[in-house]
Design brief:
globular, mainly beta, four-stranded antiparallel β-sheet, about 280 residues, Phytase-like domain-containing protein, disordered N terminus, Neuraminidase, 6-blade_b-propeller_TolB-like
């Protein structure tokens, strides 16, 4: 996969530095995650800690983490994991986003609504992208992929992983109907890489997005960015010393939690930070 990241990110200019103001970060803690969640992709903060889920090739299980990265409990869900890449929630439901489409060959992706108390699926939203022609897409070199979903007000907000253009597309997903064709409501330009995670920071009324780019040696360089409610980039910061960051969530106490997937060079980690 890193070979594809290298080729496509260089083609799309993903490695270009950002022109936006740098934010200042304090790393509060960084802990190695248990091996069973070495492919943590989605992350949602709760008052007790956070909930995460692994991506494709793994069972569909919610893992409840405390602030040390320890798993307090887990819940198995009753649907398969084709390519789950994001997790968010509101007061009543989890939303499990099976939206990964690196190869560009999926005719539709899906978001499953899961009752937060019974842990049963209550609805599946089947999503297609306006303008997407899977047979015409080149793997790892198209704009119909996604790994970032968050809940804001009464809608879900999906950020594309735009391999080709490098400009993230923003889509809103309504609670109904069950089948929806998505048309971008905004485009985010100038980020220093592709978006792999997002959360709506209710406390500060802003989006937090994370992602990465690749240099010529295939080394991933992650970043975090603040995006305002009008989808304009406010500030960006590199996440130095870290790697394949894919999950992000904002806590009510002001901390921001991230999860990093295991890679040949780094362990899977729970990272806790504060934005100054």
């Amino acid at each position: 996969m890193l070979a594809f990241i290298l080729v496509t990110c260089c083609a799309a200019g993903c490695a270009a530095s950002s022109d936006y103001p740098l934010m200042k970060l304090d790393i509060v803690d960084s802990r190695v995650l248990p091996n069973v969640i070495k492919e943590s992709s989605g992350l949602f903060c709760t008052p007790e800690g956070a909930v995460t889920i692994n991506d494709s090739g793994n069972d569909t299980i919610l893992y409840f983490l405390n602030e040390t990265g320890r798993i307090d409990r887990n819940v198995r869900l009753d649907f398969p994991n084709k390519d789950i890449e994001a997790l968010t929630a509101n007061a009543d439901f989890f939303y499990v986003a099976d939206i990964g489409n690196n190869r560009g060959n999926r005719n539709y992706v899906s978001v499953r609504e899961v009752d937060r108390h019974a842990y049963k699926k209550t609805k599946t939203l089947r999503l297609t992208y306006a303008g997407n022609t899977p047979s015409a897409n080149t793997p790892y070199n198209h704009d119909y992929d996604g790994e970032a979903l968050t809940a804001k007000d009464d809608k879900l907000v999906l950020f594309s992983k735009s391999w080709d253009s490098g400009d993230a597309r923003v889509y809103e997903i309504a609670p109904a109907p069950k089948s929806q064709k998505l048309t971008a409501i905004a485009t985010i330009k100038g980020l220093p890489g592709i978006i792999t995670g997002a959360d709506w920071d209710t406390l500060n009324q802003r989006f937090l997005v994370v992602g990465y780019n690749s240099n010529l040696l295939g080394v991933l360089r992650p970043f975090i960015a603040i995006v305002d409610s009008d989808y304009q980039v406010v500030s960006v910061s590199p996440l130095e010393r870290f790697g394949q960051v894919e999950g992000v969530c904002a806590r009510a106490d002001g901390e921001v939690w991230l999860t990093q997937e295991k890679s040949p060079l780094q362990d899977a980690r729970l990272i806790r930070l504060k934005i100054k």
